[in-house]
Amino acid sequence: MAAPKVAVVGAGVAGLSAALCVADAFPACSLAVLAERFTPSTTSDVAAGMLIPHTAPDTPIHVQKQWFKETFTHLFAISNSAEASEAGIHLVSGWRIFKSTPKEELPFWSDVVLGFRTMSESELQKFPQHRYGQAFTTLKCDCPPYLLWMEKRLKAKGVQMFTRKVANLWELHNEYDIVVNCTGIGAHQLVGDQELFPVRGQVLKVHAPWVKNFVQDGDGLTYIYPGISNVTLGGTREKEVWSLSPDPSTTKDIFDRCCSLEPSLQAAQEVKVRVGLRPSRASVRLQREVWSQGGAKLLVVHNYGHGSGGFSMHWGTAKEVARLVGECIAALQDSSSRAKL
Ligand code: FAD
């Protein structure tokens, strides 16, 4: 049988990481990434890129923990390598603060991040409106550099990149044996997934190089996430809102909320406003399907619906994609050897 042809549709964090894992696991495959938009124009470019998971209600916690752990381990290794600054990956320490003690004092990811502990009274003095807090060190991706770095690695492995809007996955069946669907919120239209909905997020990217520690208000709505080149101030979570236009009153509200946590941000400069649609679902769709039409077949692997946690779990889900692509290749080999009998 000829080397299988695989297309990954989507060039956000889910698509590029899936393509890397497939390229590493099956170097003999002919692999291409097709996407309507590449960096810096994807939802993934808007994200803060912090590794602090959000719980997806219908994905078992042990699975979410495994995806987070695999992602953390992978990025931690990059952060300790000479590639760290080009890849935009770095460790960042800080605080998650609450107005009262949360129900869940030990989140499921507390033993994956580094040095998780309850904040001391003297540390809490920095946040006079808050009564309880957690201190830890985690990883942050500067998103556009990380996406660009993954693209560069894919090209070095001979993976081709095509700018192309796919109207229907079936249109790819003459060119590819296996299609990996990593289209984020685009899957709502592409495969008609009614369970997938946008959660609109507006953030500010500011220049404030003196801010070195992250701060997240416990509800996850207000946050200050310092990166290598800028600080992301957030945010909003607007369910079922599709607008990508920034709202000036929201910009002011975010800035005021963040300044109330870190007053020195009043001196921040070069405010850029970005909006993105989190591809949200009760669970990530990570699934293999066989599509057939008039005797022709297309093997499809879905990998979308990462919601608020695409960066926090992308490497774990990408490894699962590679396992599912392996099952597709085995099925292709099986049907090809049966056809020869
Ligand atoms: P996308 O990045 O949207 O990529 C989808 C790709 O598919 C694009 O290339 C697109 O062009 C392509 N595509 C879509 N439809 C088609 C089609 N029909 N044909 C061809 N190509 C198509 N997550 C974290 O873990 N940590 C954070 O700190 C964080 N902060 C966030 C802050 C904000 C404001 C927002 C909006 C999100 C944040 N997220 C965060 C969530 C994260 O951004 C998403 O989970 C992640 O970007 C989803 O990645 P994706 O690759 O699935 O989708």
Q: How does this model look, in words?
A:
It is built from 9 helices and 15 strands. By secondary structure, the chain is of the alpha/beta class. Strands 3, 4, 5, 8, 9, 10, 11, 12 and 13 form a 9-stranded mixed beta sheet that branches. Strands 6-2-1-7-15-14 form a 6-stranded mixed beta sheet, covered by helices on one side. Helix 1 (13-25) packs parallel to helix 6 (143-156), helix 1 crosses helix 9 and helix 3 crosses helix 9. The chain is elongated. The two termini are 14 Å apart. The protein binds flavin-adenine dinucleotide. Residues 9-15, 34-37, 42-44, 46-50, 165-166, 182-186, 190, 201, 203, 235, 276, 278-279, 304, 306-312 line the site of flavin-adenine dinucleotide.
Strand residue percentage: 25-35%
- Rg, alpha carbons: 21 Å
The total count of strands amounts to 15
CATH topology: Rossmann fold
* Second-tier CATH architecture: 3-Layer(aba) Sandwich
- Weakly predicted, low-confidence segments: none
Outline, from the CA principal axes?
elongated
**Termini separation:** 14 Å
CATH homology superfamily name: NAD(P)-binding Rossmann-like Domain
Summary, kept brief:
With 341 residues, the protein is an alpha/beta fold. The protein is built from 9 helices and 15 strands. The protein has a single domain (5-339), classed as 3-Layer(aba) Sandwich (Rossmann fold), CATH 3.40.50.720.
